[in-house]
Amino acid sequence: MAIEEERKAKIKLTQEQLDRVCDRHKRFMEGRPNGSRANMPFFDLSSLDFTNRNLTGAHLSGAILRDARMTGTVLDHADLFGADLRGADLSGSHLFRTDLRGANLRGAVLRDAVMIEVDLRDGSMANKGSDGELKVIGFEPGPADMNSTILVRADMARAKLSGSFAAGADFSHSKLSDARLVRTDLRNSKFVGANLSGTDFSGADLRGADMTDATTTAATMLKTAIRSDDEAVAQQRNPVPLPIEAKEPDPEPPPALDLENLLIAHARWLKSGGREGTQLNLVEMDLDGADLRNRVLSLGIASRVRLRGANLEGAQMQSIQLDGADLRSANLRAADLRGARLDRAILIDVCLEQANLASLKIGADRLLHTSLVRARLAGARLRKAILHGCDLTNADLTGCDLHEAVVTGTILDR
Fold this sequence. Notes:
- This protein has helices spanning 3-9, 15-30, 231-237, 259-271, and strands at 126-128, 134-136, 360-362, 366-368.
- It has a domain at 258-414: Pectate Lyase C-like (3 Solenoid).
- A hairpin with a 5-residue loop joins strand 1 (126-128) and strand 2.
- It is low in regular secondary structure.
């Protein structure tokens, strides 16, 4: 489906509906009755007014926020992965440790914004999707786009911008101390009077950048392009070259993960009842895009593993522990997930068509429920999936396709 077609299919909120969501979120933050977290993944919220709202921890992954009025909005720890914020006004907003990976901020205004430790790295994940087509995770594919963004006087201490586009951005008088701008496109950007103490510009493109009166103490500039084709112009724009600080040699990289041997050892462990081999342990590993079709992962431990865009079609995954796992856009078609634990897992845009998520029978009279408590399943495809007895307490099922799915006995509230 093309991006424009997807956009038309998104849930569009009115200002009145948004105000109700924000009010419920406020009650949730204050611990009052009838409160609930703002949960609007992929919603169309363009041109709406969020002024001075507190949306700390809100889920807005992939949301369309074009031209939104967000002055003074608090978005600390919020999930804005892949969000479209083009032309939005976030002046004076608060984005402490906000996830903006892969977001589009082209032309947005962030004057005086507090963006300490904000994550604006490249969020694109080019992998084969569940239909075999090459796709990119996130609403607006590609690296975080900050081209022409206004960030005057923003506090971006320890921010992460590696791999993003920020050509023509205005960072004048901003604070970028200890920020990481590795491999960032910063051509023709402005850093007039900015605090760049400890900023890492390794591999960044700073051709044509204006750093007049910028504080550059201990800035790292290894292999950075700071000259334009016209040397005289570059000298005029940067009269004092930035210091090049020696960098400690990179540590030896860890040995490559031998996933195949781990799976072989796990198969031996299962076959021998634990007497031989080793139980599969993938906790917190990065396996984005892995091909695990029809593999046996039953009883494996994989909490907080990254499997974005992975192919797990037909995999045996009974009683696997996947709590907190990131499975965005993964293919789990016809996978056997009976008795699996997927609490708080991210399953946005995942394919679970014909997957078996029913309870697993253990012994003569015991059932182990498949658990997706607080899992995020926005946009998931569950056609003909078996969800009998599955625990979906507080799960986000926004936009899920449940056509012909078996949902008898499903637990929706404890």
